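so the lab meeting is tmrw and i was supposed to have these ready like two days ago... anyway. pasting both below. for each one the top line is the aa sequence and the line under it is the structure tokens. i havent really looked at them closely yet so no promises
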Amino acid sequence: MFRNQYDSDVSVWSPQGRIYQIEYAMEAVKQGSATVGIKTKTHVVLVALKRASSELSAHQKKIVPIDDHLGISIAGLSADARILSRFMRNECLNNKYAYDSPMPVSRLVSVLGSKSQIPTQRYGRRPFGVGLLVAGYDDLGAHLYQTCPSANFYECKAMAIGARSQSARTYLEKHLNEFPNSTLDDAIKHALRALRDTLPNEIELTTKNCSLGIVGQDMPFTIFDDERVKPYLDAIEGDARGNSGPDDRPGPGDDDDHGRPTSEARVNVLAESMEH
């Protein structure tokens, strides 16, 4: 990435038909701490890496509850994620008040896409620099969506976003056919193994740097942090790691609330998905 005469504002097109400010926002997602989502027939599992800006600070939460049937995990700018999560909560509350029923996941993601599109077209605005994995369960079953700063969104069978997430997506593609019929415990193990593959070999998943969120049939969105994650980490202890690909070299990274580089970088966006 480098500056050029066409990246001064989001309303400026380049001669090649590109909008550089949107591409720069996508880079913020690629440099955020990794998060992984897996969908089975009855449940959706989210796992995320938590980062601390220094040894003196607490680890930052990366999985956010939205409603009883819905939650998100984030990669990118946490401040932008707070704005979007507040908007999603308001939409869910308004739908509950008007229709006395939980908001369908697909409708919420569509409304979120419309909100995210506005700053990609107006002068003086900037795109939201955060990518979301949206997990929910409604009358149509389990849903996992990925959203982008470009305002595109995709329904996925499994997805990983953030720094070094190519390794996680390679793992997900390799086991994709197993996910629909997996039990909840198996899906959690798959998600944790995929997340572990995003870490350098000398770093392990721990109760401090890992967070887990689950939603599904007869189960409201529940977040597991700290010691509640330990039984699942113990279950995958000793399992062999996947091989890191050439795109998984560490680089400058994660821009959280303090804007300090704390993680590795580099990615692209996966697989079995449906663009709306």
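ok protien two:
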Amino acid sequence: MAARLAFRRALVETVPLASTGEPVFVLRTDAATAARCHCAQCAAGARASALCRSAKAAVAGNKGAKLSPFLRGDGHEGGGALATMGGAFSNFLFATAAAGHLLGRQTVGLVRGDELAGKVRNPVLAGCEAFGMRLVFVPRHEFRQLRADWPALQRRAAAAVSARHDTVTVIPEGGGGRSIGGVEDAFMGPWIREALRSLDVDTVICPVGSGFTAAGLASGLQRGGMQHVRAVGVAAVAAPPAALRQHPRVEIVSEFAEGGFGRSSPR
């Protein structure tokens, strides 16, 4: 049970905005620090390493919330493997690898672009491997097919998992539709709604990649009777994600997208 706290709860705090002194409602990055790690080192009674602390931080925010529906009831050491897919700069891949490290479970990441297999790992992929994730680099055309073919994704993921695992939990890119409920539960609980009201918040802003976090926030605001609060998403890619097509309440700001996820320009 203790190991699952990181995936069921997020801590928040208010900090003053430097320019005006107005309070800003933010998620803390250390919400998972109280969760027990199930890696071999911690199980042996050693002090948590920097890697373990990094893993806890990785699942303390929205990525941990998106993972929570796939981990409920499975917070024991020795559970089945976890597998997901994403691009080379996917924070969701990183968080899935971190979750596997904390729970002592094998993880597999299907990465877009087989041309990356022989190249130096970027910080995101290097972190995934440090947490023990096996990276499988998939040709871009096949990756697009797997996005649209759930049975094919399940077969591809199962084939990449070690034979010693009887079960594998396959998680869609970015968490998929099930992750929306995880965001609702984690960030739109009664106490957070009360905090939003007490601070007289009129706008909630979040970055948008897959769109599932923004969709969860919008659904949570609706469910919590806070329809007056605007939900604004700042897009990391130019095209609006499919997850937001059913959530017109999310206002998308796309002027800062630079042509691809993780890309930037001098401006």
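from a quick look at the 2nd one: Confidence is low (pLDDT under 50) at residues 1-35, 74-78. The CA atoms of residues 51 and 176 lie 27 Å apart. will dig more after coffe
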